[in-house]
Structures are given as structure tokens and as C-alpha cells.
Amino acid sequence: MSGRAQLMWDEAVTGYDFGRGHPMDPVRLALTMRLVEAFGLDRAVSVEAAKPAGDSTLRLVHRSDYIDAVRRVSADPLSADGSYGLGTEDDPAFAGMHEVSALIAGQSVAAAEAVWRGAVEHAVNFTGGLHHAMPGAASGFCVYNDAALAVARLLELGAERVAYVDVDVHHGDGVQAAFWDDPRVLTISLHEHPRTLFPATGWPEEIGGEEARGQAVNLALPAGTGDAGWLRAFHAVVPELLAAFQPQVLVTQHGADTHFEDPLAHLAVSLDAQRAVADSCHQLAHRCAQGRWVALGGGGYAVVEVVPRSWTQLVAIAAGRQLAPETELPEEWRQEVYRLTRLSAPRRMTDGRTPSWRDFAEGGYDPADRLDQAILATRRAVFPYHGLMP
Q: I want to staple 318 with a disulfide (CB 3.0 to 4.6 A). Which of 5, 79, 91, 339 is the partner?
């Protein structure tokens, strides 16, 4: 492998726009790329643009009738009536929906191809991570499931074991559904408990189909979980499972909506903890997956305060140029934030936290603690299938 990192970017991805007032504001993508450039990280990685995913690629995950439906409402948004999840409050139809959704999917598929073929060790597509889209329906702001398509393309290229780790605040339901019965894929999702958040799935008892028992892993976190609990949960489940599974590629989804300022969810995680998990994913790729790492974006609706900083740090980690927490944000970027949003930008790459956690494996389990109960429920549900002790 070359050891280089690749960043997927095409300015046209900002056309993924559900309209004024929708939480999925494409300005979050533009501001992230402008911050990457302001820090000079675009010179530390290879910036590449891929073609939109074609129908044959989209059909690796999505049904042909659904692709046809997306194409129809893309050409005539007024025809959308809620069928196939298109034209709903979450997924309003807009002109060019098919084209830009396929473009985002193409970036994630190309990232996976580059890593598998050894052109780069790491590839990032922060515009991707649209993990709710189902084979036959749009869902949760997601039209085409680029994360599942990236995994499916890796399998098509010959990968025998692919691990997908999702740390978005919402359950990675679409990716889990795509590989429910496929023992070649391990899906791990850490998310807010389904009792309190969309999509109301991701219970620890969801462990995969008959042909892939234990290959779906779900850790449902209590609302209000902060840095210490989030990190404790991640390290209590993810490293042991990856070490046992030994994937040939690690695909990760880094939704920034776990943050305490996110308006759509109820966890209390800081940028500093998000940085720590991204760094852990990088290390786990080297420890368990021969360094092959595909990192995607995802949710995140604090579009100025959180998303650009979280995903710029993700790019920096992939490039081997992790930014110190106290790093000041460039003034030209702060001016760009005001120009585009009329909002004041943050000043540093940190929330001022120093994340730490108690290691679950070293004792200290509290049977009365809801977080520890959640961790143990997940370990009991899936660890035995991997030869591990709960």
C-alpha cells in the first residue's frame, strides 16, 4: 500500500438539498470542505471526485423498482406521493434527487475500491454515511445507502470479511438490513436507545439472520449518555469483536449527531470524544484490518458548531495530521461561516473536554447502572457467537 489517504469530494454533492428548513442542510458539507482547505489538509491527502454510481452498482443493494421511482421523482418532484418513502416530511422530493444521491454513493464506492485495491490505506467520504436508506425505500433523510453500497462493492471485489462500525446517534438500520443474512459482514451500531429515538430499531436482541447469527451487533445507549459512558461502551464492545472477526476492511460511519448540541437527539457527547473514537477506529483498522479503512460521515445537524470540526478532524486523522484540540480555527473560515450562514463560528477545535472512561474489562461493572446494563445485554447477545466471554 502507498500509505496515502484519499478524500472524496465533488462540489456538486451540496446539491443534496431537501429544501429550506430541513435539518439536512448542505451547508454543513461546504463548510467542512472549506475548513479542510483552510487547514491545508487538502494538500496532505489525495482529493478525488468519482462518477455517480450507475444502476448496476445501485442494484447491489437497492431494488430496480425503487431506483426507477427515485429517477421519476427526480425528474418531476411534484409527482412524489410518499410511495417508496419519497415525498415525505423526512425525504421531500427535489429536482435532481437521483443524480446527486447517486453521486454521493459513487464517492463511497470509489473510496472502498481505492482502499481494497491498495491505491491508498485510508479513504474518507464525509458526504456519505446515509445509513437509513432501505433496499426499496428512502428513510431518515437517506435516498441511496452509500455505506451499504461500499460494503457490497467490497464483497463483489472479493472481500471475505468486512466490518462496519456505526457511531451515529441513530441506529444503522439500513446497513444492518442489507447484510442481515450475510456472514461475511459484521455490522456494529452504537446509538441512542430505540425507545427514545428514530428509527426505533437496534435492540441488542437483533443479532442477524439464521445464516449470520451474531453478525449484527447493537448497543442501545440510554438518553443523556455523555463522553465517559459513550467511550466506555465503544471500548467494551468494538475492539474485542473486531479482533475476533479480523476483517479485511473496516468501514466506519461517523455521524456527528451524538453531540450535546445536536437538535435531533439526546446524547451528550463532545467533539473531544468524537475525535477519540475516530482515532480509535484508525488504530483498530491498523490492528485488525491491515490498515484498510473507509471512513464516512452521516448525521449531524449542528451544522456550524459541530459538523465541520468533527469531520475535519476525521480527515486529519486519516491523513496522519491529527489537529491538537486547542488549535484555533482559521479566521478566513470563520468569515466564510458568517458569509454563508450569518452565524458566529466557534474558535477552537475542542469543546474543552478531556475524555476518559473506565474500562469494562477491568471490572467495576455496576448492575444498577443503565449504561452497564446496555453493554452487558449486547455482550451476552453476540459475544458467544464469536468465541468471546460476555
A: 5
